[in-house]
Amino acid sequence: MTARVAVGIIGAGPSGLLLAQLLARRGISSRVLERSSREHVEGRVRAGVLEQPTVDTLHAAGVGERLAREGIVHHGIELRFAGAAQRIDFSALVPGRNITVYGQREVVRDLIATRLGDAAAGPEHLCFEVSDVEVAGLGDDQPVLSFTHAGRRQQLGCDWVVGCDGYHGVSRHWFPAQMSQAFEHVFPFAWLGVLAAVAPSTEELIYARHERGFALHSMRSPELSRFYLQVPADEDLASWSDARIWQELRTRLETVPGWRLESGPILEKGLAAMRSFVHEPMRYRRLLLAGDAAHIVPATGAKGLNLAVADVRLLGAALADWYERGSATGLDEYSAACLQRVWRVQQFSCWMTRLLHVLPTDDAFERRLQVAQLEAIAQSQAAATMLAENYVGLPPPGPSS
Ligand code: APR
Ligand code: PHB
């Protein structure tokens, strides 16, 4: 007999784990199938800026305890360019709204610990090291997932299948070709990300535009700093010794009189491509997409995780409406509602990326325009408010919007 579950979820990143958690709190069964090991999933260093609605959703999901203790609330960011520093003051520009610095890795660890501690969720509701996930029965609304786990090929019948399997996942390829449209832009540079055991040299995040390229000073805790450097798209990580990384960070960040960057041991470094991607639509019959499976934004605005949480918040509510009230409205509107936000956030992330990075193809004219745009933000409250409004995050959609 084929096992059954209400919602089959592919992928145990933030999207899949949070959806499983929100459903469990409404008494809706799910099973999460993850390709990698728990250690791998918990070890990935990703972004670390949470919008307030994201924090609220994590609290509502019952996974906000450590976040409340360890998350650091920030009321502004700094832009550095042309030898000057400009603070974007959220309290003045978007009163009452702020962001919380808390690593995505910690969000994932909190979610996994909570899901694995959920005794009521049934056996194997969260499976790691699952391979060859396939689907059948989508065409007649009776999806069945097949997969290999613990050396055994298994079948799982589902009411709904949710692809939370990220950009490299399989689920969006299950849409019929004529019902699937992808929009993609790859930026001609990458980010070299660094985690270092050193107290941050700043209280707020610093976004720096430098002639040699973009640099970002972020943080994880009073003892851990996070940095990014713009590097060529085809960069070889091996060419970045720790000494070279610190030297380049100093060159791009120490541009303000009297400001010094503290260095320390580098714990982790890696390269990340800068890409925009949107898959339309986000639903085909009983198959739904959420998070990076449907969209990627360039990391400059720190929006990837927040966008994923926005999808899952809507989807959790829509599925609850379907199970509790028999209403299909939320599920019918899910794709359009998500995509409207996705494109708004895509626009902001691309704009902020273009504002701060130096493209190999930029001529002297383009470079002057870029600095003029940054000066406009420094001098015009309207321009700064536009940045602040988007950075702290668009308001979450209401139940009927
Ligand atoms: N079968 C099972 N699991 C899969 C498969 C597959 N075929 N393909 C991918 N996965 C798993 C990956 O191993 C990963 O753990 O799906 C998960 C997808 O997680 P993420 O890539 O983290 O995507 P998502 O959960 O949507 O998180 C949103 O926010 O900051 C951003 O990009 C960042 O990860 C981030 C995202
Ligand atoms: C991070 O801390 O990892 C981070 C912060 C801000 C960004 C991107 C990443 O814009």
Report on the architecture of this protein:
The protein is of the alpha+beta class. It is 35% helix and 29% strand. The chain has 11 helices and 19 strands. It has helices at residues 14-25, 38-43, 52-60, 65-70, 90-93, 104-116, 242-253, 304-325, 329-356, 364-379, 381-392; strands at 3-10, 30-33, 49-51, 72-74, 76-81, 84-89, 99-101, 126-127, 131-136, 144-149, 152-163, 181-196, 206-208, 215-221, 224-232, 266-280, 283-284, 287-289, 295-296. Strands 1, 2, 8, 9, 10, 11, 17 and 18 form an 8-stranded mixed beta sheet that branches. A hairpin with a 2-residue loop joins strand 5 and strand 6 (84-89). Bound molecules: adenosine-5-diphosphoribose (APR) and P-hydroxybenzoic acid. Adenosine-5-diphosphoribose is lined by residues 10-16, 33-36, 41, 46-47, 104, 130, 133, 164-166, 168-170, 291-293, 304-305, 308.
Provide a concise account of the structure shown.
By secondary structure, this protein is of the alpha+beta class. It is built from eleven helices and 19 strands.
Kindly state the mean pLDDT as a whole number?
96
Number of E-type strands: 19
**Which percent bin holds the helix content?**
25-40%
Number of helices: 11
The hetero compounds bound to this protein are: adenosine-5-diphosphoribose, P-hydroxybenzoic acid
Query: Distance between termini?
Result: 41 Å
What best-fitting shape do the alpha-carbon axes yield? globular
